[in-house]
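We emphasize that the prediction below concerns an isolated chain of 672 residues; any contacts that depend on oligomerization or on bound cofactors are therefore not represented. The input was used exactly as deposited, without trimming of termini.
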Amino acid sequence: MADGKIENVVSGEEPFLGTLDIALLVILVAGGTWYFTRNRTKPEEQGRTYSIQPTTVSTAAVTDNSFIKKLKASGRSLVVFYGSQTGTAEEFAGRLAKEGIRYRLKGMVADPEECDMEELLQLKDISNSLAVFCLATYGEGDPTDNAMEFYEWITNGDADLTGLNYAVFGLGNKTYEHYNKVAIYVDKRLEELGATRVFELGLGDDDANIEDDFITWKDRFWPAVCDNFGIEGSGEEVLIRQFRLLEHNDVQLDRIYTGEVARLHSLQNQRPPFDAKNPFLAPILINRELHKGGNRSCMHIELNIEGSKMRYDAGDHVAMYPINDKDLVEKLGLLCNADLDLVFSLINTDTDSSKKHPFPCPTTYRTALTHYLEIAAIPRTHILKELAEYCSDENDKQFLRSMASITPEGKEKYQSWVQDACRNIVHILEDINSCKPSIDHVCELLPRLQPRYYSISSSSKLYPTKVHITAVLVQYKTPTGRLNKGVATTYLKAKNPEEGEVKVPVFIRKSQFRLPTKPEIPIVMVGPGTGVAPFRGFIQERQHLRDEGKQVGESILYFGCRKKSEDFIYEEELEEYVEKGTLTLKTAFSRDQEKKIYVTHLLEQDADLLWRVLGENNGHFYICGDAKNMAVDVRNILVKILKTKGNMSEPDAVQYLKKMEAQKRYSADVWS
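Result of the prediction step, given as a token string:
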């Protein structure tokens, strides 16, 4: 019977399409028509120059990672790669690429993490091509996160880079042991792989004047490039805006960034994983004063990270995104005659760049100055050069131009008037009355506000859902009589959980600063002031292991501060660990007697103890705190102890210390 029914339909004894079939067909056709035409632009909308689209988390995901294609398509021959952790190397790269046009080298900035770096082999196919690398050294001589893959590629690979023209500028700090290690290695390695060095390696020292180092190197770099390619500069520098302004009058409120780092509404709709582009809003549970007297302040802060899925180990860092002081934001708005609540976007004029905006857009000027820009930092010389064009008084214009120049007089004036006087952008505009820059150009010029990193002062073995921070409030009078305030610590100081729920955006950064894997190994910790922070976590963990019945080696802490009665932080806790037999505590209170005593003096006195722990028992040595003086002094003392107690020559003692570093038996968590 079934076969007969089919036969009847086919033979035409029933209609081919019933009423219901026709109705369904009409619906399908209509639906298909809507689907294929729904994304077509209406004729009347074709004249719009810009459609408001919030920036995404990473433009790399939706853009071609071929920098060669971009260079060829836009007629460029200069590519400047950057390895940046705090934004300075990226800023220097941008300045070099921008200046290339003066020398008939149209340039682009590139993040090696977003590029196929094996394409360096093809760069020689572009006439007069040049690759410049602005690379910072980070941590214990490591490449920055975004340069890690490139660094590993040239380290482990054997690519033939014959025909590649290159130059390298490094960003480092001489107070650190591995000064500019990454740039020095990359410069040498590129040559080993067959590339041609167009100009000598430049080394910038952030402990001195890295801006001066950069512009001095840059001033000699360009003539060398011109000689190499047989080209001439176009003479006078032309100031070019990198971003164009678009002001919005009708943008929907839910499409405006209000402080998010990357994803729109990420602070309202939190979802893991949490990292630098997606921080976790952590409630502050405790914010208490640690100092018992004096006119300084040190905060103990406890963050609640429950539910974040973030994990940490003792020795890791917590990063926090601060906001700028509201009064400073208001002052800058007034000085620029700006409506801070106006919604705007800055759009990159280089359509090939993966960086479409300097910060999340669209947003208001108030949000940009509060959340996204370093308005309290000391401006670099290129900013002064651009500000000069807004001076109505010729003397003011020449004054700013001179400080932005490479003349000895200009450099000296910049050092004294800007750097030594600690003038930020607000102070400069206050003191040069005729300078009235447009607020959008100021937003383009200022660097991005960076997260601040703190050594975690707790152990996850005891506090798996909490992160402790130990931070000194930064405030100081400048030579001009102004009171400068640290951005992050001023922000934290105002976060009082007793007045209601307060949260801060944070993420965890892993560290190599680790306790020995075997708890029975003895350790020596040197942490004056807030340098004690990570060691508080170490000691908590060692106590926890002892409480579990495990064998734990000797733990010796050298702590120093000004006065025992004022700034001996965590005194009661540390004394309790001493009473329990977990800790040997050595203290130096520099101002409690006529002759100042520091932790370095205690280390010198304990030569026998240190040799026993480090030389005879293969203990681990840790140092946390000031890199410029204390860390250097401590290292020198250790070399001296190794020489005298270990009967080593100077070279052998230095080599022994380097071996300890390689074995992770000597670790430093220092800052300058």
